């Protein structure tokens, strides 16, 4: 969430930011109406309080002077002031809520280093690792390799839950578990603290990271006003909601595996085959809490950590910077890692690493204190990134490591996690 004072002082910048994003807008006129109304109410209350205090002091003096009628009239004024102040305080509460809701719907301001663009076609490539896999045979897509090896059963997945769900079996189930453990072990070795959070969350947590209220239709609702999490980012970031952190302990690096649940309400007709865009998927997430002056360095190191996982798996990929038209609601800067998928003859997103600046921290009230540097507290900067999306990684392994006979070679780094399995053979 943006600072209301910042919005008041920089409306042209907010205009420019919203104009550069997809489907982003804000009601500038309404903002200033509410802001002026709020300040007017505050001014009137302060004047009434001052008048009330002055009159209250006069009551005693009037009583001592025997001016009972004047004293009673003064008491009536004090009572009337109290009623009016109560009325104005109720009005202020409503105005401040309306102002808060208006500002909470404004997306973050893209960092000055974010390139302008309309959509993902304008995302510039930063670097690439490896070359697109070449075959001397006609390669298959993972949605064909999955059933032929017994790794994925699409038909029974749909029978069990519905469209955009799938069932993993045999080596598929084993590889899913192997990838989760491999990613977590890699991050922990790099210095991340592992957590195991719930997968059901509340409104405040989703508001804190920016999923609510804007993306309500993309979330799975459960009873009691609760939700299934769309990403572990929600839980890891909100661990410190309404807390003041010790500045000496920053940055904090957290990681967690969770299943993730998304309605994918706006994705009709996109990636309908395979396991690239589904309603339930596994992901290992990274989250960081950093000091403002260090957050961009932490973003670069987070991207490097996600890249390390892809490099260890030997999967070709490239890194792109998301342009203004493609960047997420809460992010001020974001990199996407896109892995090569032969079935698309293109790169597909497998990780997004974002610096959210103080946008989430203001919504979730996450601050830090560092007496050696300043008095009081400051908002931390929060960062998040996939490390990695497990299903998409499996799809990439299946397609890039396939062999002419329909078998799939297991990446060497995964073999210790897969009972030393070297090759996944097609079913007889």
UniProtKB/TrEMBL annotation:
InterPro entries: aa-tRNA-synt_IIb (IPR002314), aa-tRNA-synth_II (IPR006195), aa-tRNA-synth_II/BPL/LPL (IPR045864), Ser-tRNA-ligase_type_1 (IPR002317), Ser-tRNA-synth_1_N (IPR015866), SerRS_1_N_sf (IPR042103), SerRS_core (IPR033729), tRNA-bd_arm (IPR010978). Consists of two distinct domains, a catalytic core and a N-terminal extension that is involved in tRNA binding. ATP binds at residues 262-264, 278, 349-352. It catalyses: tRNA(Sec) + L-serine + ATP = L-seryl-tRNA(Sec) + AMP + diphosphate + H(+); tRNA(Ser) + L-serine + ATP = L-seryl-tRNA(Ser) + AMP + diphosphate + H(+). It comes from the Bacteria. The lineage of its organism: Bacteria, Bacillati, Actinomycetota, Coriobacteriia, Coriobacteriales. The keyword Amino-acid biosynthesis does not apply. Residues 45-98 form a coiled coil. It holds the Pfam family tRNA-synt_2b. CDD domains: SerRS_core. One of its GO terms (molecular function) is serine-tRNA ligase activity. Gene3D superfamilies: Bira Bifunctional Protein, Domain 2, Serine-tRNA synthetase, tRNA binding domain. It is an enzyme of class 6 (ligase). Homodimer. The tRNA molecule binds across the dimer. Residues 175-411 form the Aminoacyl-transfer RNA synthetases class-II family profile domain. Catalyzes the attachment of serine to tRNA(Ser). Is also able to aminoacylate tRNA(Sec) with serine, to form the misacylated tRNA L-seryl-tRNA(Sec), which will be further converted into selenocysteinyl-tRNA(Sec). PANTHER family: SERINE--TRNA LIGASE (PTHR43697:SF1), SERYL-TRNA SYNTHETASE (PTHR43697). This is Serine--tRNA ligase. It is found in: Cytoplasm. Keywords: Aminoacyl-tRNA synthetase, ATP-binding, Coiled coil, Cytoplasm, Ligase, Nucleotide-binding, Protein biosynthesis. It comes from Tractidigestivibacter montrealensis. L-serine binds at residues 231-233, 285, 386. Belongs to the class-II aminoacyl-tRNA synthetase family. Type-1 seryl-tRNA synthetase subfamily. The keyword Protein biosynthesis applies.
């Amino acid at each position: 969430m943006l600072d209301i004072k910042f919005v008041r002082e920089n409306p042209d910048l907010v205009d420019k930011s919203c104009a550069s994003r997809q489907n982003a807008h804000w009601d500038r006129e309404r903002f200033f109406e509410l802001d002026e109304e709020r300040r007017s109410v505050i001014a009137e209350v302060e004047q009434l309080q001052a008048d009330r205090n002055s009159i209250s002091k006069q009551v005693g003096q009037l009583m001592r002077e025997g001016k009972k009628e004047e004293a009673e009239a003064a008491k009536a004024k004090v009572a009337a002031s109290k009623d009016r102040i109560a009325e104005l305080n109720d009005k202020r509460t409503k105005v401040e809520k309306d102002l808060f809701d208006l500002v909470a719907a404004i997306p973050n301001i893209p960092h000055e280093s974010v390139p302008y663009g309309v959509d993902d076609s304008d995302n510039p490539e930063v670097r690439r690792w490896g070359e697109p896999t070449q075959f001397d045979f006609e390669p298959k897509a993972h949605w064909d390799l999955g059933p032929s090896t017994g790794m994925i059963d699409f038909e029974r997945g749909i029978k069990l839950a519905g469209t955009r769900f799938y069932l993993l079996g045999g080596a598929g189930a084993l590889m899913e578990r192997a990838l989760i453990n491999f990613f977590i072990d890699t991050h922990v070795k790099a210095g991340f603290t592992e957590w195991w959070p719930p997968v059901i969350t509340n409104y405040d947590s989703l508001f804190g990271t920016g999923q609510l209220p804007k993306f309500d239709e993309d979330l799975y609702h459960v009873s009691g006003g609760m939700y299934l999490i769309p990403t572990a980012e929600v839980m890891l970031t909100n661990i410190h909601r309404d807390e003041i952190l010790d500045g000496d302990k920053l940055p904090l690096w957290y990681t967690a595996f969770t299943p993730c649940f998304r309605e994918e309400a706006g994705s009709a007709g996109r990636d309908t085959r395979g396991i690239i865009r589904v309603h339930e998927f596994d992901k290992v997430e990274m989250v960081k809490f950093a000091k403002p002056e260090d957050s961009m360095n932490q973003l670069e190191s987070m991207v490097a950590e996600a890249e390390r996982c892809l490099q260890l798996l030997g999967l070709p990929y490239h890194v792109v910077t998301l342009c203004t038209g493609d960047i997420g609601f809460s992010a001020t800067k974001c990199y996407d890692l896109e892995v090569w998928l032969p079935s698309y003859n293109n790169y597909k997103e497998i990780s997004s690493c974002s610096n959210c600046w103080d946008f989430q921290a203001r919504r979730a009230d996450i601050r830090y204190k560092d007496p050696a540097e300043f008095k009081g507290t400051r908002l931390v900067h929060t960062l998040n990134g996939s490390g990695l999306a497990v299903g998409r990684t499996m799809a990439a392994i299946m397609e890039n490591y396939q062999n002419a006979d329909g078998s799939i070679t297991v990446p060497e780094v995964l073999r210790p996690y897969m009972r030393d399995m070297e090759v996944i053979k097609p079913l007889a």
